[in-house]
Each structure stands twice: as structure tokens, then as C-alpha cells.
Amino acid sequence: MEFTKSLIKGKLIKRYKRFFTDVKLSKDIVTAHCPNTGSMKGLLEEGNEVYLLPNNDPKKKLKYGLEIIKSRKNLVGINTHMANRIVQHGLENNLVNELKNNDYIKPEVFFNDHTRFDFLVEKKKQKIFIEVKNVTLFRNKDTAEFPDAVTSRGSKHLLALIDAINKGYKTYLLFLVQIQNMKYFKIAKDIDEQYYINYLKAKKAGVNFIAYRCDISSKRITIEKKIKIINE
């Protein structure tokens, strides 16, 4: 996915009230919208290099949106709203090895009254649900982790994927690693033990877990390559 405009480089001052970040641009300080309501654990150190997307929408009070943070020499895409667009681009361009040459791709499909999955695809008459999780946590130099906080919603999705298998669907959970240079992925079971328990339950039930790293620059973010999940 290409950014609609050139990103502007700045220095992070702070994030607050979940949706706001103060950023130093040259001699000015601006407030930018933060499109990530999660903990963003490990990314919010003052002075980190950041990249903002400008907008001229008169309906928006904030004229910048935070897109990328550079943390410990790695660019990290933090816009959770971009994740599904990146994956849709990857599906349409056959960048996900396990999900190539689909007959159709439909985003945001309700499975039941309470659960909506990110994609429904059909391949050779097999219907496949795909749930996407955006990954921005890394606590060592080469391993990405999810989640970065307790996620009851994430656990609910795992159990719904199991239910979908029981109703005849094939299911995938794709961890989209928006972090440069990662070689491995793992579930952060010390952060959310229940999510790890449900991950193991879902894996045993037949949910397919895959992790793909993104290629990230100030011009675009696209799926780059598959990385190994190490808590098998």
C-alpha cells in the first residue's frame, strides 16, 4: 500500500489520551492523530523518529496522522487501520503463499451475530475465513510478538475461528508484522496467558497460523516475506 502523500519526518514528544501525539517538526510542535489505541509497548520513547501523513481535510481538526515510528533502528507501521488494506493488497497480488490465486476476496464478513472476520476468500470452492492481527511489539532484535496487552477480543476471535472450522470453513489467522528486520514471531504468553492458551486450543483444532513481515518505507508498506512462528 502506497501512502497518498509524502510522509513528514519528526521527533516524538509524547502520546496521550490514546488518540493524540505531540511531535516536533523542525522548529514547530504539532499534534497528530494516533491511529492505534493499543499500548504500543516499547515504541513511545521520547525522541523516537516518527513519520506523519499530512491531510487537508477541512472536517478534520488534526492535520497530521502518525504512520510510522522508528524504534531501536527498526521502522514500525503503527496504523492499525492500514493492516487490512496491506493484507488485501497482498491477497490480490499473491504475496501470501498459502492464499494465492483466490477466486474471490471479500473484506469484513460477518460469521455470526457477534463476530466479523477480516476476510472471506474462496479458492477451488473452499471458503476460507482470515483474521488479521497487527503486530508492533518486539522486545529483542529479531522476534516480533503479539499481543502487546491483554486482549479478550483476540481470544474471542480465536474461539470463533474454531467454531468456523466446525461449520465447514477453513480458517487462517495472519499475524501482520509491521516491523522491519524481524526473523521470528511468537505469542507473548507472559503478557496474555489466556490468549496463549486459546492459541494452542485453536492450533489443535486446525486453525492455520501464519506470520508475514512487511517491507516498510516512508513511501509504502507491503507484505515482504513469511517468518517462522517459534512457539509451536
What does this structure look like?
The radius of gyration is 18 Å and the shape is globular. By secondary structure, the protein is α+β, with helices and mostly antiparallel strands. Helix 2 runs parallel beside helix 3 (193-205). The chain has two domains: 8-77, OB fold (Dihydrolipoamide Acetyltransferase, E2P); 80-229, Trna Endonuclease, Chain: A, domain 1 (3-Layer(aba) Sandwich). The protein is 18% helix and 44% strand.
Number of separate strands: 15
Low-confidence stretches: none
Q: Choose one word for the global shape.
A: globular
End-to-end gap: 31 Å
Query: Averaged pLDDT, please?
Result: 96
Layout of strands and helices, then pairs:
Layout: E1 8-16, E2 20-25, E3 28-33, E4 49-54, E5 64-71, E6 74-77, H1 80-92, E7 104-110, E8 116-123, E9 126-135, E10 137-140, E11 143-146, H2 152-166, E12 170-177, E13 184-187, H3 193-205, E14 208-216, E15 221-229
Parallel strand pairs: 9-12, 11-13, 12-14, 13-15
Antiparallel strand pairs: 1-2, 1-4, 2-3, 4-5, 5-6, 7-8, 8-9, 10-11, 14-15
Helix pairs in contact: 2-3
Short description:
The protein has 232 residues and is of the alpha+beta class. It is built from 3 helices and 15 strands. A hairpin with a 2-residue loop joins strand 5 and strand 6 (74-77).
Which short descriptors sum up this protein?
232 residues; 6-stranded antiparallel beta sheet; OB fold (Dihydrolipoamide Acetyltransferase, E2P); Trna Endonuclease, Chain: A, domain 1; alpha+beta; 15 strands; 2 domains
